[in-house]
């Protein structure tokens, strides 16, 4: 909605959860990219979690953040109603509360660490945070800064926070992330195996496998997937299947362009199909082409072009071929299009 669009502009790139086109896998890819690009600068990690964030978030601080962004009084009244639905804290289930929580931490934590403290490798998913650094000493200083900022808005960090070497694996976002590979979190594997053992319904088992595949395909888990499901992890490309229309006619990708737009342009002719019914006639020919690397196609009723394409089709390596379409005048000032 409109509020979300305005708020999203203010979030740092490496924050996820309840943000369009961002999520666990997007954030994990950011972490992996940084680990691979700068292994020396990301030797250690500091991981933290905010204690009961939604229950303990101060409503007055949330509204203060909203007032910094929005000036419309009617909108602020509506937002305040959502924020103050509960006597204390903000409701975990409301879509508006997720945006409110993101904004609160964006103002008091994300931008403070990135802009004022100069933290280069910082990631947040909802109330879980991760910082990467070159030394433990550097991360302990950042840890103190995080505690200080959270103290300003009456929030606390859980005591299970830790600073540790990245080579141990970063347990974050449901995965254990290392620079060169990613595994699923142990608890997720165990939970799936237990459910597969308990569930007897074929339909429910298929649903569980599909859900598990959605997790494992983003990690290096081919062997694990086969072990727990008895199935090979394959992508659609591996299946080597394609759409087969009932009429037997080929379908080509790309937008349809007028042949007039292609005159004097170098193109690559990739394939063709005849007997196509259009508003201009029933036995027309559609030609699949590539222009500057972009797939396109055009219709023609030229008997000359159809004949040439049919001859090329009979050649072992006829398609694709490069050509330029030219115009020729014949008869009483009539124009035709030809391959050259």
TrEMBL record:
Reverse transcriptase domain boundaries: 1-177
Extent of the signal sequence: none
PANTHER family: NUCLEAR INTRON MATURASE 1, MITOCHONDRIAL-RELATED (PTHR34047), PROTEIN YKFC (PTHR34047:SF8)
The family this protein is said to belong to: Belongs to the bacterial reverse transcriptase family.
Protein name: Reverse transcriptase domain-containing protein
Organism in which the protein naturally occurs: Bacteroides xylanisolvens
């Amino acid at each position: 909605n409109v509020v979300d669009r305005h708020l999203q502009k203010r979030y740092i790139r490496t924050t996820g959860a309840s943000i369009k086109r961002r999520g666990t896998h997007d954030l994990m890819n950011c972490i992996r990219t940084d680990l691979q690009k700068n292994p020396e600068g990301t030797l250690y990690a500091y991981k933290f979690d905010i204690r009961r964030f939604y229950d303990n978030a101060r409503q007055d601080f949330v509204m203060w953040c909203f007032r910094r962004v929005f000036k419309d009084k009617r909108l602020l009244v509506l937002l305040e109603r959502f924020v103050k639905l509960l006597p204390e804290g903000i409701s975990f289930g409301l879509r508006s509360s997720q945006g409110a929580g993101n904004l609160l931490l964006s103002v008091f934590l994300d931008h403070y660490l990135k802009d004022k403290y100069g933290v280069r490798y910082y990631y947040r998913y909802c109330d879980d945070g991760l910082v990467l650094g070159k030394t433990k000493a550097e991360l302990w200083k950042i840890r103190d800064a995080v505690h200080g900022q959270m103290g300003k808005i009456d929030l606390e960090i859980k005591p299970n926070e830790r600073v540790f070497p990245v080579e141990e694996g970063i347990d974050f976002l449901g995965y254990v992330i290392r620079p060169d590979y990613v595994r699923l979190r142990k608890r997720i594997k165990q939970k799936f195996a237990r459910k597969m053992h308990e569930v007897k319904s074929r339909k429910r088992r298929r649903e569980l496998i599909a859900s598990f595949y959605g997790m494992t395909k983003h990690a290096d888990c081919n062997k694990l997937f086969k072990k727990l499901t008895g199935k090979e992890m394959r992508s659609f490309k591996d299946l080597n299947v394609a759409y087969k229309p009932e009429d037997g006619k080929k379908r080509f990708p790309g937008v349809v362009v007028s042949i007039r737009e292609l005159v004097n342009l170098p193109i690559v002719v990739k394939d063709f199909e005849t007997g196509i019914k259009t508003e201009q006639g029933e036995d027309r020919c559609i030609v699949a082409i590539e222009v500057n690397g972009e797939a396109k196609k055009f219709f023609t009723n030229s008997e000359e072009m159809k004949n040439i394409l049919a001859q090329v089709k009979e050649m072992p390596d006829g398609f694709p071929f490069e050509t330029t379409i030219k115009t020729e005048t014949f008869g009483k000032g009539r124009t035709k299009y030809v391959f050259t």
